[in-house]
Each structure stands twice: as structure tokens, then as C-alpha cells.
Amino acid sequence: MQDHPLERAAWVEIDTKALRANMKEIRERVGYDRQVCAVVKADAYGHGAVEVAKLELQSGANRLAVATVDEGVKLRKAGIKAPILMLAEPPISAIPLLLEYDITPAVTTIDFALSLGEMADAAGRCHPFHLKVNTGMNRIGVLDSEVVEFLKAISFHRGLELQGTFTHFATADESETWDFKKQLDRFRKVIESMRQADFDPGIVHCANSACIVRYPETYFDMVRPGIILYGLHPSKVTYGAIDLQPAMSMQCEVTHVKTPARGEGVSYGLKYRSPSGVQVATLPIGYADGLRRSLSGWMMVLHEGQRLPQVGTICMDQCMIEVDPLRDVRKHIKPVHIGDRVTIVGCNGGDELTLDMMANAAGTINYELACAFGKRMHKVYI
Ligand SMILES: *Cc1c(COP(=O)(O)O)cnc(C)c1O
Q: Which residues are bridge partners to 134 per DSSP?
């Protein structure tokens, strides 16, 4: 069993074997003649960007993608040399950092492109960028019908190098495929019109995780897996279509145990009242660790392979569980003790609680929970 961090008995465990296995699965799907750009934004979806980036580069990724300049700088400061693509255009005031730390931005506006070109040129350099095309998600990007015009407006600049062209899908993980096909069709036409106008699109890419699982026709020159790197499904649509191993689990140890008298309340608002003869145990993990407060009274945890209900309001840093020896008469519900291991997400004693189960109960998606769990808790790599 893995030791917990010295200072706190609640931690996130990251299974590095699972991360490697997921990358292998992706590589086998997309082949070796195209690039894999590992998406490690948001601290690698809560898994720890520096550790995950190093591991992904060792196990088959060619490049990394981040969402913000800070995230790119952090990787560079950790000594990572691989190309780093930023998936959005930062403010113009961030350009000196892009140059200093060699971060490749997505470009979506002429102003930004020309400023980048000016500053790169002033430094005696030519800076790469990837053109982001809006094919229908309508978040960011140059409208597909305006791409050629856009390139004509900036192509004179010797400080700029168009290294890649990409788009992003709004519905790659939905069962309905009409909108997806429309976006893919627009993307193909943009690339064709660029070539006809004598602009080399460079590395062409559009496939997120859902595309990698479902649509080989989207692979082009490079793919951009995020959630599947971490062993999670982009949505129910990909269940069963790819073999993934979840890398993140959440563990803690019981910090306190008592047997309240019948009718005693527990936690803020005393919303839970104790029946007689049950143990109420405290776990050192709360909503500041990503355990949604809205899950109060609606989630289970695992202790020695048995599911125990969380009870009362989830606090900022702690929550309580109930151990009722009479809850299931067919089983002997084992009593808990201070220091016992309790699993919030992951495997324990032959049973498993998944992030997807928790996301369903919380009315959100696994992406959001994984990001939140990585924030305050220590990460232990096994
Ligand atoms: C986050 C993101 C990805 C990765 O998405 P997943 O669904 O996690 O695979 C790929 N491309 C862009 C532009 C993104 O913002």
C-alpha cells in the first residue's frame, strides 16, 4: 500500500502505468506516421502537468498543448524542451513571454498576429504559430470563409511562421453526427482553399479524444488527446469503444470515529440525524479539495470493499460517513478505526467508484471533477 504524504491523510494517487497504457492505446490507433500532441492544460486535468508531460513525452507524445501562457512557462521552467502549443491566443501583452519561453500560440486575430511578427522580428527571430479556424463551434478562431483573406493580410510578415492549422469540434462526443460532419467538411474545404491560394497549412490537426476513438478520418497530421490520456471517457458515447485505465484515484484515512446518541445531528445545519448504534467517521477531505458540496448525502465511499454512505453536509476540509452495522443484514459491515484507508474515487477491496459515477451524481462531467481534485491535494505517483 502506498504511504500518504506526511502532512495530510488525504491525497490523490496517479497511476503512471495507467498513463503509459493509455498513450500506447492512442499510439496504436493513430499509428506512428503522425504526431501526438498531449493536452496537459489545467495541470494535466488535475494529474500534475510537469510529471504527466515528462511521462507522455517518454511514452510517445511529440508535443504538448496548454491553455494559458503560465502553463507553458511552468513546463519550460521544469526543463521541458518539446514544442508547446497554446490552444488559444493570449493578450498581446503576453507576447514577450511567448518569445522568451518558446511557446507557440494559436492565432485568431490580425492584431495579435502582426504584433507577434513585429516583436519576433525585433528580436531577430521568426516565431511559429498555429492558425485556429472556426468551423462551427463559434468559440474562437478565424471564420472558415475568411481564412484566406486573413492569411493574405499577415503573410507579408517575415517574423511569422504558419506552423500548423487546426480546428475544434463542438459535438465529437455526441451520438448525433450531423453537426460534426458539417464541421469536418468545412475544415477540409479550408485546408484545400489554403493550398489553392498557395498557403502551406503546415501541421493539420483537429482530433480531440472523442475523434481519436470514433473518427479515424480526423487524424490528419496530428491528434490532440486530452481526457483519454488520463483513462477517462469523453462521454458515454465512447464506452466500450476504447480500452482505458483511469489514472486518478482519491484516497484518505479516517481521522475521527464516534458513535453519536440517537437523534444527534452531524455537520453544518445538523441535516443528518444519527439513528442509534451507528458509527460516524470523519474524513479529512472537503469541497475545497473538489468534493462537491452538492453531493452531501448523495455519495458513497469505499472501506475494505464495502460501500459506505457519506452523511451530513460536506464541509470545506472534512466530511463524515456513516457505518451502520445493520444497514445490510446479509453482510457484516466492518467497523472503521482511525487511520483506516477510505477510497473516494478508485478501487478498494474488489469494488470501484469511478469519476463518472460521481460526475453523474453531481450533474457535471468527469473533466471538471478531475481538474478540481488535483488542486489542493497532494499527488502521489505510483
Ligand atoms: C481541451 C482541448 C482538447 C482536448 O480535449 P479532450 O476532449 O480532453 O480530448 C483538444 N483540443 C482543444 C482545442 C482543446 O481545447
A: 143
